[in-house]
Design a protein that fits this description.
Chain lengths: 315, 325
């Protein structure tokens, strides 16, 4: 177990190190001089002012030195200054990250609840219920997030006014009013994915020989379902849920923009448009890190769920 | 015999294959007395496993069962689901061929062994554990307490099959259904596991339906032998009469095709022709295409079990002299 944990954590650190170099290095490819952002306006920039900005922000240091300065800052929780917003990146993030976290958490809860319930019920009930559950989840997987977002906003926000079509609010009721539609939009295509995997793995376990053994011993059905079918199917279900939740971090930007939510996804899009490198780098790194950490966590929990992964051979 | 523990009368079974029904058991008539061991022998696909599963009604959805199954007077086909559960948990225990597939890989050995006692008998966990540890020791598992905490992949096939046997004994059933309990094991372990089953059975006066390909093995551990061919029992006779008095040409051919005494699991394929599946059987005797004694009537008239030799045989021209193969 500890060996397994060690290799996973080492792999995680290596991936993050490589990702940080790639993310920071990508600014070399970006056109233009970041200093001009600070000067602003259409006037031809004053060369002296530009030079002083270069000195102040160490823009002329070699790449390695700048990367190292950035990295040590990041490791201490400081993402540096944003030139375009004239603010610290930390402050920009702090204002927005809770919206994003709430949105992703809300969407994750919807994915798990609806996806697993739909998939399990489909496999257990079989027949026409299963056929329609399969069709619905396949359909859901095919709809792009921005389409479903616009549709939800129109139907439930504008026409029915059940929820706010856009904006953000505070507290539980605010989250419910403003974040329900975006969360559903974000969750939508993943629900189908989780439901499909859940259904096939529950189905496979239902047919398995060890379930036949449990039946042959007269174990009551609910116990067989819980201890043998769902327990054994939990590995793949958990894995796919983890991937789904990790994947949300990538699509959250689309939904935040569509519903006018002030989150870090929307900030990423805006910052990229403004060529605000420090902010883009910070958010990219956060997204990659959360994706990789979530995946590692999924691997660990999957291993914990299956004793065969961690322990030795017959003795 | 007054009233047998288990009796199958005119058992037939159809399963759904690709939307249409296919007959997999035609005609099984079989009894197992209290404490008696009956060997059910036949080539692959003859319907042995499905016969055993029918006794527990452990059948795929949509299965159509025909005929009567009585256990200790209870009509099994008519019993409701809760009666069926009680029946499965108390009266009969099944030992499956492949313990690695038939024991849940993600739960501990202890969980597997005690699950039935705890959930269907309401035994406190501690008590159930003490009981199964004693059973593990009885079936020759050393270090039982440690094994209880392990998982199936940490045990060899032979050990796992002992665990399966211990689990079967824990239920204190009246009948064991053993479906090729040694086929998945290596040769040396096979003999050990067979001896364990034999001993445990003798001690408890347990009845057993023992399924195997191996006629000699069945004759060695059973009181009676029933031979199946293409979904029907074709001969039923005392184990002692097998060599000298078997009357069905198929049984005789099986005996003749055995490679040599002491060498288990030899192929039965030495009989010319291919074994038929139950659904392929036409109007006459299912064995007719391969039978050296077949006559014209054999192709039109289906024989049913009737007294022959020391038991009964489903053959129009039974006889104990060896047919010329
Ligand atoms: N679930 C099923 N659906 C359809 N047909 C089946 C099913 N299970 C078994 N059969 C068919 O029924 C026939 C009898 O199967 P059964 O498993 O009882 O044979 P068997 O005598 O136990 O053979 P073996 O020695 O190979 O275990 C075979 O032809 C098999 O293909
Ligand atoms: S009935 Fe005829 S074909 Fe069938 S086993 Fe007897 S002799 Fe052979
Ligand atoms: Mg079989």
């Amino acid at each position: 177990m500890s060996r397994f944990l060690l290799t996973r954590v080492a792999g995680l650190v290596i991936i993050l190190a490589v990702a940080s170099v790639a993310i920071y290095g990508s600014m070399l490819l970006a056109p233009g001089d970041p200093a001009t952002l600070l000067v602003g306006g259409g006037k031809p920039p004053n060369p002296e002012l530009i030079a002083s900005i270069h000195r102040e922000y160490h823009l002329d240091d070699p790449f390695a030195v700048r990367y190292w300065r950035w990295l040590t800052g990041v490791l201490q929780g400081d993402f540096g200054p944003s030139l375009a917003y004239r603010d610290s990146v930390n402050h920009l993030l702090a204002e927005r990250i809770s919206n994003t976290l709430t949105l992703v958490g809300y969407a994750s809860a919807i994915i798990l609840l609806v996806g697993i319930t739909l998939g399990t019920a489909g496999a257990l009930r079989g027949g026409r219920f299963e056929t329609s559950a399969t069709a619905i989840s396949a359909g859901a997987m095919a709809v792009p997030t921005f389409v479903i977002g616009a549709l939800l906003a129109y139907v439930f926000g504008v026409r029915l006014s059940w929820f706010a079509p856009s904006g953000s609010g505070s507290g539980i009721s605010g989250a419910f009013r403003y974040l329900t539609l975006p969360a559903v939009a974000l969750a939508f295509s993943w629900i189908g994915y989780v439901a499909q995997i859940t259904r096939t793995s529950v189905r496979a376990e239902l047919r398995s020989e060890h379930v036949e053994t449990a039946d042959s011993r007269g174990i009551p059905r609910p116990g067989v379902i819980r201890r043998h079918v769902l327990r054994n199917a939990s590995g793949p279900i958990f894995a796919v849920s983890g991937i789904a939740i990790a994947g949300l971090t990538a699509t959250t930007a689309v939904v935040e923009k569509a519903f006018g939510i002030s989150g870090i996804g929307a900030l990423l899009v805006d910052a990229a448009a403004k060529q605000d490198l420090a902010t883009v780098q910070a958010i990219s790194l956060i997204m990659v890190a959360s994706f990789v950490v979530l995946n590692t966590l999924v691997d660990l929990v999957t291993a914990l769920l299956d004793p065969r992964v961690l322990k030795g051979r017959p003795s | 015999m007054s009233s047998p523990l288990l009796s199958l009368e005119g058992l037939g079974l159809e399963l759904r294959v690709d939307g249409s029904y296919r007959s997999v058991i035609h005609q099984v008539d079989l009894t197992v007395g209290r404490g008696e061991a009956v060997g059910l022998v036949g080539e692959s696909g003859s319907g042995k496993s499905l016969t055993a599963r029918s006794v527990l009604r452990l059948l795929p959805p949509g299965a159509r069962l025909r005929g009567d199954i009585r256990f200790d007077g209870m009509p099994v086909p008519q019993s409701g689901s809760s009666a069926l559960r009680t029946f499965r948990s108390t009266e009969i225990a099944m030992i499956f061929q492949d313990p690695r597939a038939h024991i849940n890989p993600v739960r501990s050995i202890g969980d597997f062994l005690t699950e039935g006692l705890v959930t269907t008998r309401g035994l406190p966990r501690r008590q159930a554990e003490a009981k199964v540890v004693a059973l593990l020791q009885e079936v020759g598992v050393a270090d039982a307490a440690r094994r209880m905490r392990q998982h199936p992949h940490e045990l060899s096939g032979g050990l796992l099959q002992r665990v399966m046997i211990a689990a079967a004994l824990a239920a204190e059933p009246k009948l064991l259904l053993a479906d090729e309990p040694t086929t998945a094991l290596d040769v040396t372990t096979q003999a050990e596991v067979m001896a364990i089953i034999d001993e445990a059975r003798a001690e408890r006066g347990l009845a057993m339906l023992f399924i195997t390909h191996d006629l000699e093995l069945a004759a060695a551990v059973c009181d009676r032998i029933a031979v199946m061919y293409a979904g029907s029992v074709v001969e039923d006779l005392p184990a002692g009469a097998l060599h000298d008095r078997s009357a069905h040409p198929y049984t005789r051919a099986l005996l003749a095709s055995r490679p040599s005494i002491g060498e288990r699991g030899g192929s039965l394929r030495a009989i010319p022709g291919r074994p038929l599946s139950a659904f392929e059987v036409g109007a006459g005797c299912a064995f007719a295409p391969r039978c050296s004694r077949a006559q014209e009537t054999c192709r039109t008239q289906r024989p049913s079990l009737s007294p022959a030799g020391k038991g009964s045989a489903a053959c129009l021209f039974p006889g104990s002299e060896a047919p010329s193969v």
